[in-house]
Amino acid sequence: MNYSDNVGVVFVNEGAENNGFNFNELKEYARKLNKVTSIWDIQEILQKGKKWIISEIKEKNINKLVIAGIEPGFYKTFLANVMLECGNNPEKVYLASFSEYAATTKNDIDKAKTIIACAVYNADYEKIVDFGENSVNTNTLVIGGGIAGIQASLEIAASKNKVYLVEKSGTIGGHMAMFDKTFPTLDCAACILTPKMVEVGQNPYIELMTYSEVLEVNGEPGNYQVKILKKARRVDLAKCIGCGQCAEKCPTRTPSEFDAGTKLRKAIYIPFPQAVPNKYLIDEKVCTYVQTGKCGICVKFCPVPGCINLDEKDKIVEITVGNIIVAIGYKVFDARKIEQYGYGKYPEVITSLELERLINASGPTGGKIARRVQDKKGFWIFSPDEIYEPKSIAIIHCIGSRDENYNKYCSKVCCMYSLKLAHLLKEKLHDSEVTEYYIDMRAFGKGYEEFYNRIKNEGVNIVRGKAAKVEKIGNDLIVRAEDIENGKIIEQKVDLVVLAVGLEASEDAKKIAQILGISVDENGFFNEFNNISEPVDTHKGGIYVAGLCQGPKDIPDSVAQASAAAARVLQSIAKQKINNRKQNFSISEVEAKIFNA
Amino acid sequence: MNARVNLNVKKDLLKYGAKDWNECFHCGNCTAICPLTDDNSLFPRRAIRLAQMGLKDKIKENVVPWLCYYCGDCSKTCPRNANPGELMMSLRRYLISLYDWTGISRLVYTSKKFELIAIVVIAIFVMILYINFTVYPAGDPNKWLGEDGGVLINNMAHWRKIHLADLIMAGLLSFFLITNIINMWYHMILKDKTVKVNILDYIKGLYLLPLHFITQKRFSKCDESVKTYWYIHLLLVIGYVTMFTMIVGFLEWFQTDKVHPFWHPQRLFGYIATVFLFLGIIYFYYNRRKKLRENSKYSHHTDWAFLVLLFLTVLTGILMHYFRISGMPKLTYITYLLHLMIAVPMLVIEVPFSKWSHLAYRPFAIYFSYIKNLAYKRK
Q: At the N or C end, where does chain A have fewer CB atoms within 10 A?
């Protein structure tokens, strides 16, 4: 290291306003570094001109410049020219690029400091933050049993390595199990998913823990000790034969999660007929016995003695794993938040997920459209008695997506699933008129644009213009929109309104992030280490993300990402080494390394 | 049809108070949520488009900014927070300055300093005239009092002189306002070669002018919460029109030496109008101050100037009345002066060149758009 350097640091704070990056703190830090003699803002330099900065550099006898910022490279040529005109070596202009090392959120302030320090002292950042490699436990934990979690588990188990698959609900399958068809091929979703689910259930290398949650994660990359809460299922998995007599007699009902609340299930239930494991469980939140201590009818009617144990307690198990894949999925946007569409107010306004269940032949109405009605106990359900044939259907895109008031991002799948739903509606109700109201049609994937054209040719009306409100005028439900391409106002009388709700980060995302020590972005999705080159890694070694919890994506992308995450796990197992990457390191720790270098 | 892009439109609109309209990605939400739009008048999205593209000529021909009453639903639900409502408001200000051939309006809107100086200059002018043509109540104070104890106001400022000045001012303001309306008519109807409006159309739509001038009926079509807003606006209009008619039309009857009993129409109408005016001013002030509604979130300096001047006018007016009936000649004289020094600049600046000109532009815009549609339908 050359200690005769006089270093000037130029800060470029463009592109940093949005994520709350604290440049003042960085400036304070840079000022204290003992070779740094001057600090400027690029704005100041551009305002005062080239001559000014040349005289400044000469006056302060600076012979090295560091440009620090999220993406500072833009100014390198300019400042190299400045150095040349000062009579200095133009090659002594160094970049401290935060985005290069993925330090782009306010949590990465220590990282940014390290990047600056490395640039100032000519140290290699990669080497400085390399905390060596650890040996790897060959077991893997997969959190979340949706399509991404299933895919990742199967990939790893195929190489004969142990996988613990932890799922919060009573069955694996996730959201994909709820869908009728997949776009753009219109394959039956269940036909693709259920064989995979069965395989997970039967694979000896996969230890399936349904109705369980991750409580605590300790240790470091390659060797994590995980505490898992096995919630009391109150039905013995080994003894239950799935006959269903308990559920038949159970007196308590509650909306079914699997059917998106379109129908009711009992307090003792199987989430859906193809569930894995295909065994009953008791919902303690509604079970009369658990809540009041009186009932127990299910025990009386269960043909297997000792199968139902209503007093079973939660258990905590501890496992040790080398790698963790997070695939906790998402939740759909709550359409009640946008009042003008009347969801929750008009029974004919439903969400896309509800339609997905209604139109499914195994759904609550056997694939027919029904009106939402309130049953005797006050639950809003879709009863088979209320089946009707809507003549005119509106599908409204971008509900809660691409909206500054709700979620700014595009949920990526809504355009395509709306087209798919339009197709399914047309298929089942030939005479009905289906109209899609969209802002931009985002048919981005392989075969998607073709699918869009196909649906257009099937006679679905496609209107450019976001429908703004759904109103009941008299007995008519009216959707109001501007038809931008034809320059008129549309006031369509409809019998059914489908709201294409966007996707949001799971409500557990923050909790899981805290437990694992990884970070989420401003929308609650997990941050990947590097969006382009390391899209499934997180900032912590040995923890990977897959599927929707990393950002909105469709099923093919989720599956691909899950396989990629599995490949990263298998790489570390094959190498028997894992990069000891840390999310948080202390500044003093790295400073010591910089000065020793 | 030719359309010329004018790069200054963006800079201009910023001065007139527009917010982030360039955020708009044209989803059509604003047009669809608006309770006033129909196939013939699509806004605000189309107006945003014109503003984004800088088509100044098209903006000048466009009637739609005047059809919007700013309920604010568009801004509230805009997915881009592009503030369509505030853009429509700014377009109205912009249009006022475009119709105004003198260029004064543009100066008033784009420069706070100009507005202030103009007010002061006119006020001083009024003061000089007033001092020259009136008599200060000097000497024995009882000389200035009538039998009923009221101030003999016509001895110091005879109603004939004031009335003459009123008429001159009203003529001048009408001249500016009418020529500006003709300018608007030229751009909206004559210049548009796609449609030919005939005499019958003009006659058919004529009833709209008094209707919308007096009731602002379209305003009431905005959603329910806006109804209060409309009622209060209506009260303000009634108060203002009553006062204006009594003062400019019937000053001999309104400015008397005799103190009438409380229930005399001269006093009663005056009081009711004053209450209405105060109510309106307080309501609008409170809304703007607290930014309670979408349409009072952003206040241009001309909005404040209007409210403040109107408040001071009513305040000095009622004070003068009080001093007159309580027999205080000197204070009556001074408050009368102040009243004129505020009211005259307010009327001269606001009515033809600024915010208040909407009293003419709005009904005329509705009228023009109606007759244009008649002509289109015939086609």
A: N
| Distance between start and end Cα atoms, chain B | 19
Helices (H) and strands (E) in chain B, counts: 18, 0
| Predicted confidence pLDDT, tens digits, chain B (379 residues) | 578 899 999 999 999 988 888 899 999 999 999 999 999 889 999 999 999 999 999 999 999 999 999 988 999 999 999 999 999 999 999 999 999 999 999 999 999 999 999 999 999 999 999 999 998 988 888 888 988 888 999 988 999 999 999 999 999 999 999 999 999 999 999 988 888 888 998 999 999 999 999 998 888 888 666 688 899 999 999 999 999 999 999 999 999 988 999 999 999 999 999 999 999 999 999 999 999 888 888 999 999 999 999 999 999 999 999 999 999 999 999 999 999 999 999 999 999 999 999 999 999 999 999 999 999 888 7
Report the C-alpha gap between A210 and B331 in whole angstroms: 88
The residue of chain A with its CA nearest to that of B74 is: A468
Under DSSP, is residue B53 helix (H, G, I), strand (E, B) or coil?
helix
User: Do residues A12 and A30 touch, judged by C-beta distance below 8 A?
Assistant: no
Min distance A70 CA to chain B CA atoms (Å) = 24
Q: Which of A404, A440, A488 lies closest to B39 in CB terms?
A: A488
A452, two tokens: 């869009």
Residue B224's contacts (CB-CB under 8 Å, 6 or more residues apart) are none
- Domain extents in chain B: 9-99, 104-378
- What's the CA gap between A590 and A296, in Å, rounded? 61
CA atoms in the 13 A half-sphere facing the CB of A45 = 22
Q: Which residues of B touch A (CB under 8 A)?
A: 25-33, 37-39, 42, 45, 77-81
pTM: 0.88
Please tell me whether residues A282 and A200 are part of one structural domain: no
- Closest chain A residue to B76 measured between Cα atoms? A405
Would you call B42 and A487 a contact, using CB atoms and an 8 Å cutoff?
A: yes
Strand-strand pairing, A223-230 and A212-220: antiparallel
| Optimal mutation site among A489, A491, A497, interface B, most CBs of chain B within 10 A | A489
Answer yes or no: do B27 and A467 touch at CB < 8 A.
no
**What is the average pLDDT across A86-112?**
82
Q: How many structural domains comprise chain A? A: 4
Q: Do A482 and B32 touch (CB under 8 A)?
A: yes
Residue holding tokens 């004070």? B319
Contact A286, A208 (CB under 8 A): no
**CATH code of the domain occupying B9-99:** 1.10.1060.10
Show the domain range for A69: 7-131+586-595
Task: Determine how β-strand A253-255 pairs with β-strand A268-269.
Answer: unpaired
Residue A153 lies in a domain: yes
Answer yes or no: do A488 and B42 touch at CB < 8 A: yes
Strands (E), B167-278: none
- DSSP SS3 for B3: coil
Boundary of a domain, candidates A313, A347, A376: A313
Q: Chain A: which residues have CB within 8 Å of chain B?
A: 340, 398, 402-405, 439-440, 464-469, 480-484, 487-489
In tens, the pLDDT along A379-389 reads: 899 988 889 99
Residue in B33, B42, B81 closest to A468 by CB = B33
Residues of chain A positioned with their CB less than 8 A from the CB of B78? 404
Domain end, chosen from A458, A476, A504, is at A504
Q: With cut-offs at 50, 70 and 90, classify the pLDDT of residue A23.
A: confident
For residue B300, the one-letter residue type is H
Q: What CATH number does the domain containing A160 carry?
A: 3.50.50.60
Percent of chain A scoring above 70 in pLDDT: 98
Inter-chain Cβ pairs, chain A and chain B, closer than 8 A: 62
Residue of A nearest to B41 (CA): A488
